[in-house]
Design a protein that fits this description.
heterodimer; A: 543 residues; mainly beta; seven-stranded antiparallel β-sheet; seven-stranded mixed β-sheet; B: 192 residues; mainly alpha; elongated; Glyco_hydro_32_C (chain A); hydrolase (chain A); Glyco_hydro_32_AS (chain A); glycosidase (chain A); Fructan_Metab_Enzymes (chain A)
Chain lengths: 543, 192
């Protein structure tokens, strides 16, 4: 591999009984991604993104080994060179100087013809701080009858880090029945790895832990922390697992004992389905990396399609990546905040700033002069009339269910109010992202929903509604919502990054110039829009 | 899955379980050899027990198949049923029945099943990532439903779509059992 120096090393899970995977030597023939002419027409491909990363065609899933190396950002991703469903998986590769515009590279890794390999699966990359002499042996961590690791549930290693004890450490997710586990492996030389006797972390009834991630965050600062640096009391740890059972990414915040190599979530930080998610919509197999150039933690996530496979075959592609997000610990210490990288704002043009306005109950306000199918919009609401808020039934603990039952067309008192995106001229199609405010036990509760039920006249899509509670106090704070809109994706950020929700939609009418963007209030009480800014987004070189 | 969970809980507390019960459980859930009992246990985890049992029994290799083998049989059953459906769609399309549009859609649905979902499921089963095998068969069930819906109640394909849907709906939980039985396999090796 000409691109990587000897200092980079990749981890792959070893499939039981199928041998060791090796990086290809440069004399092998590489496949290249084919050119884009047939996909240039916007009308024949109304749902391809303008600024979200995706290959020119075919299937993509997990992001792998994201990193910055010698000033260049690298992204690898699971890719099928032959079709629009999962299969024939290889590691494809792109590079960027700004995390916005990407240059495709040759396929990084694909199965060698010499070994009986079944594919290049998800893994991580570690950059060594020192010179490293290539070993003729590849490191192996494998499930065997001796270590009793479940062979079909042992995958996705994290990036390795160097502990204070001078040994390298890496975490791999697995399961025993319905208990999710994270095994920790240690090594002195990066070749021979020994499984630690105690698990780094585990939790009952969570199922298989895929794509385990484990990293430090600063307390009281949005500046990122590198796992390799000396750490003090101003650092907490985040443990994240992608749960195979529910296809969601969950995380906890807690403490890490670097001597015993044990992670303990904080009181109230819960693993599994009742815990916090990176994103309450479509966002999976996420991977973070420390951006040493700008001292920040960046998160990538795979957003799969909500269309049927027959539609995916017709359009010839499946899978996009989310816009990279910066992640840091909220000042409460109880949750992470996520926000799109600042660099994405370089695509903003033709800003539209609407003046402060009271939005009466039952009204809609169009945002003019914006390319509504490819936009970035930020809106902030101020709410009063709190005594009129609907009561929150104590049994309403599932926000997703609550949003499904109370969609945008269900009138409330304080809400629903928010945005209508990908709206067709006659409102036959629209996707709504909105808030509702309820009176809870001793405080007001904010519910955020992304309602796709009217998103498309095509009946073949998955139009599941998404929901999450947002930890903001609407009495003392304004409610903010930002949505990144890009042809078939809406990535929404509520409460300045406290609750994130990503949805895929495939309108038939509301495409390109025929898409409209509105603010709306379908509650009985008025709300005040204190800020509404929208930008048309330029096209990025996504591949 | 509840039965399996109880069984694996037994295996995980090996030191506390009398040896005789372990032996009995081992012979019952042997990884290598299947019997009518394994077919029954597998089919109990699916929504169409009778269809599952008759489908598996109709394939002579099922008596020697392990859990992965049974899942493969089911996936190939979906393939066989989908092939029949597509054949019928093509025949009907040649007659001028005024059903050109929905039949054309259905041809796309079944093309997706045969050229994408089934190969995905087979590759995933062969390479040991049941998750994508489940995605494949779940979409197959979905495509059959989408085809049926295109006729708005006047479908000439109802029986065929139902068979494809139900066979796919059996295959998904059968695939999920591969996770559970692999654990039992490793636990049982420890005792031998």
């Amino acid at each position: 591999m000409a691109i990587f120096s000897a200092r980079l090393f990749f981890f792959f899970p070893i499939l039981f009984g199928h041998g060791i995977f090796e990086l290809e030597a440069s004399h092998h023939i590489y496949q290249t991604l084919q050119n884009l002419d047939e996909f240039a027409s916007a009308t024949s491909q109304p749902h391809r993104t303008g600024y979200h990363f995706q290959p020119p065609k075919n299937w993509m899933n997990d992001p792998n080994g994201p990193m910055i190396y010698k000033g260049i950002y690298h992204l690898f991703y699971q890719y099928n060179p032959k079709g629009a469903v999962w299969g024939n998986i290889v590691w494809a590769h792109s590079t960027s100087r700004d995390l916005v515009n990407w240059t495709p590279q040759k396929l990084a890794i694909y199965p060698s013809q010499r070994s009986a390999i079944d594919g290049a699966w998800s893994g991580s990359a570690t950059i060594f701080p020192d010179e490293w002499v290539k070993s003729p042996k590849n490191p192996v961590m494998a499930p065997t009858p001796e270590n009793q690791i479940n062979a079909s549930s042992f995958r996705d290693p994290t990036t390795a880090w160097l502990g204070a004890d001078g040994r390298w450490k890496v975490v791999i997710g697995s399961r025993i029945n319905c208990k999710g586990l994270a095994y920790l492996y240690r090594s002195k030389d990066f070749v021979y790895w020994i499984k630690a006797k105690t698990l780094l972390h585990s939790a009952e009834d969570t199922g298989m832990w895929e794509c385990v991630d484990f990293f430090p965050v600063s307390v009281n600062s949005s500046v990122g922390v590198d796992m390799l640096s000396i750490l003090g009391p101003n650092v907490k740890y985040v443990f994240k697992a992608s749960l195979d059972d529910t296809k969601h990414d969950y995380y906890t915040v807690g403490e890490y004992d670097p001597v015993k190599d044990v992670y303990t979530p904080d009181e109230g930080s819960v693993d599994g389905d009742s815990g916090l998610r990176y994103d309450y919509g479509k966002f999976y197999a996420s991977k973070s990396f420390f951006d040493s150039a700008k001292n920040r933690m960046i998160l990538w996530g795979w957003i799969n399609e909500s269309s049927s496979v027959s539609d995916d075959i017709k359009k010839g592609w499946s899978g996009i990546q989310a816009i990279p997000r910066v992640i840091w610990l909220d000042k409460s210490g109880k949750q992470l905040l996520q926000w799109p990288i600042k660099e994405i704002e370089m695509l903003r043009t033709n800003a539209v700033h609407l003046p402060r306005k009271v939005l009466q109950g039952g009204s809609v306000l169009e945002v003019p002069r914006v390319t509504a199918a490819q936009a970035d919009v930020e809106i902030t609401f101020k709410v009063s009339h709190f005594r009129k808020a609907e009561g929150l039934d104590p049994s309403w603990t599932n926000p997703q269910l609550l949003c499904s039952q109370k969609g945008a067309s269900v009138r409330g008192s304080l809400g629903p109010f928010g945005l209508l995106v990908f709206a067709s001229k006659g409102m036959q199609e629209y996707t709504s992202v909105f808030f509702r405010i309820f009176k809870g036990q001793n405080k007001y509760v904010v519910l955020m929903c992304s309602d796709q039920s009217r998103s498309s006249l095509n009946p073949d899509n998955d139009k599941t509604t998404y929901g999450a509670f947002v930890d903001v106090d609407p009495v003392h704070e304004h409610l903010s919502l930002r949505s990144l809109i890009d042809h078939s994706v809406v990535e929404s950020f509520g409460g300045q990054g406290k609750s994130c929700m990503t949805a895929r939609v495939y309108p038939i009418l509301a495409i390109n110039e025929d898409a409209h963007l509105h603010a709306f209030n379908n509650g009985s009480k008025s709300v005040t829009i204190t800020r509404l800014s929208a930008w048309s987004m330029k096209k990025a070189n996504i591949n | 899955m509840k039965t399996s969970r109880a069984l694996t809980a037994v295996f995980l507390s090996l030191s506390h379980v009398p040896l005789l019960s372990i032996f009995l459980l081992l012979t019952r859930f042997s990884f290598v050899q299947s019997d009518a009992n394994m077919i029954a246990q597998t089919c109990k985890q699916t929504p169409f027990y009778n269809l599952c049992v008759s489908s598996l029994n109709s394939d002579p290799s099922s008596s020697k198949a392990d859990v992965r083998g049974l899942a493969l049989i089911m996936v190939n059953k979906v393939k066989a049923k989908a092939t029949i459906s597509l054949h019928l769609i093509n025949q009907l399309s040649q007659k001028s029945l005024g059903l050109k549009n929905p039949l054309s859609y259905c041809a796309d649905n079944y093309d997706a099943i045969l050229s994408a979902d089934i190969p995905e499921a087979l590759e995933a089963l062969q390479k040991g990532d049941p998750k994508f095998a489940q995605d494949g068969v779940k979409d197959a069930a979905n495509e059959a439903n989408l085809c049926e819906a295109k006729f708005h109640g006047k479908s000439p394909l109802t029986k065929f779509n139902k068979v494809v849907h139900d066979t796919s709906a059996i295959a998904a939980p059968a695939i999920a059992l591969i996770y559970i039985y692999t654990i039992i396999f490793f636990s049982s090796i420890m005792l031998v």
